[in-house]
Write a structure and sequence with these properties.
Layout: E1 12-16, H1 20-26, H2 28-36, E2 40-45, H3 51-57, E3 60-63, H4 73-90, E4 94-98, H5 100-113, E5 116-121, H6 132-145, E6 152-154, H7 157-165, E7 174-176, E8 201-205, H8 214-227, E9 232-236, H9 249-257, E10 262-265, H10 271-275, E11 279-282, H11 291-298, E12 303-306, H12 311-314, E13 321-324, H13 329-341, H14 344-361, H15 364-377, E14 378-379, E15 384-385
Parallel strand pairs: 1-2, 1-4, 2-3, 4-5, 5-6, 6-7, 8-9, 8-11, 9-10, 11-12, 12-13
Antiparallel strand pairs: 14-15
Length: about 375
């Protein structure tokens, strides 16, 4: 499927996010399409190993110093100043933004500079899971930051409805996206691994955070392996994440020693690990649109996830996988047991339905079209919309 929206005239676009790898891993297709359309892209993000890949693609990368998890007002004011200074130096026609702090403080800076700002709500993060005090503060910042944004992209209806109900955005600003989109050709359907029915491989791909449901994954592993000792639970993702809900390395090592969870660390390419799994699991507390589930579904793998925003959009319960209660290791184990009870033919049919679901509703061409349409509608001189 190819994008059908005509590309707008070339612009200078600034793209900001809290880690360069986020763009390479999740938005490579969009970045490539924008470059192919003739736009000049400046990436403003903390520099990491992925920055070289962005430069090879044709982006200019500027290192952004930021405290991604901290709540220090002084550090956040310094971040706001860095955004304001860099936007003043580069004078982009528009800014495309992802992740919470980049969305909020980037929006304030762009507004002060008179630059069109297009944020993408990729998820609500720890702030919306930490209690009313912090959530109220963040909501107030969103409401003021997005007041002049011409468009705000959302990746699931739950987040959109929450922002509308709390008057954080106006209905006319809202645009929906199917996550960051998937390239079905890059994640092709693969044959199921030849594991015995009672010895499946359950794979979780995520940063090792409590909010991702890693603790519940370990709890479910203990329950399932007590009944089916041949079942394996693998965890693919980096330790030491810069996040308040990060799980200590010694805890993960303890699970490994007990034979509950095999921690695979971080890998540059998840496709071989997905191909070796029977089912992909994500017991997250809340998501924007979980790309790992979409990648697994594209490769014809059934998925198990919690019945929460984002996950319930990616998994059709009983058709492409199973949904279970959040923050409940026993409920996750029950869903895993339901999968084990399926015949090989039923598992294969579930995987094929998952693949068709991605091809129909989550192709990255839909995302590229949406950004092209939003950029074509921008009046970069008036920083609003063309009539």
């Amino acid at each position: 499927m190819r994008p059908s929206v005509t590309a707008p005239a070339p612009l200078h676009l600034m793209v900001t996010v809290n880690a360069a790898w986020n763009l390479v891993n999740f938005r490579r297709g969009l970045i490539a399409a924008l470059l192919a359309d003739g736009h000049r892209l400046t990436v403003l993000a903390p520099r990491d190993a992925a920055a070289d890949a962005l430069e090879t693609m044709g982006c200019r990368v500027i290192d952004l110093r930021m405290d991604r998890k901290g709540l220090s007002p002084l550090r956040d004011l310094a971040l706001l100043w860095r955004f304001w200074r860099q936007m003043g130096r580069d004078r982009p026609d528009a800014v495309l933004s992802y992740t919470i702090k980049n969305n909020i403080f980037g929006a304030f800076a762009a507004r002060a500079r008179g630059i069109a700002f297009l944020p993408n709500i990729t998820g609500l993060g720890t702030a919306f899971l930490s209690g009313r005090g912090l959530q109220g503060l963040v909501e107030g910042l969103y409401r003021r930051a997005f007041a002049k944004a011409p468009v705000v992209f959302f990746q699931n209806a739950d987040d959109r409805d929450l922002f509308l109900a709390r008057a954080l955005v106006r209905p006319g600003q809202v645009r929906m996206l199917p996550g960051s989109g998937i390239d079905p050709a890059r994640f092709p359907a693969t044959a199921r691994p030849d594991h015995p029915p009672g010895a499946p491989v359950f794979l979780m791909i995520a940063r090792v955070l409590r909010d991702k449901g890693v603790v519940e994954f370990a709890e479910a592993a203990g329950i399932i392996r007590a009944r089916w000792p041949g079942a394996r639970f693998r965890l693919l993702g980096p330790l030491g994440a810069d996040n308040r809900s990060a799980i200590p390395a010694e805890t993960v090592a303890g699970w490994h020693r007990q034979g509950l969870v095999e921690h695979l660390g971080a890998l540059p390419d998840v496709r071989p690990v997905i191909a070796a799994a029977d089912c992909v699991v994500l017991p997250s507390y809340r998501e924007g649109m979980p790309r790992t589930l979409l990648e697994a579904a594209s490769m014809a793998r059934p998925c198990i996830a919690t019945d929460v925003p984002g996950c319930r959009d990616a998994v059709v319960d009983g058709q492409t996988g199973f949904l279970c209660a959040v923050r409940d290791g026993a409920a996750l184990a029950e869903a895993c047991a339901r999968f084990i009870a399926l015949s090989p033919e039923a598992r294969e049919a579930m995987g094929h339905r998952a693949r068709r679901h991605v091809e129909r509703d989550f192709d990255q061409a839909i995302v590229i079209d949406a950004y092209r349409a939003a950029l074509a509608a921008l009046d970069t001189k008036g920083h609003g919309w063309r009539c």
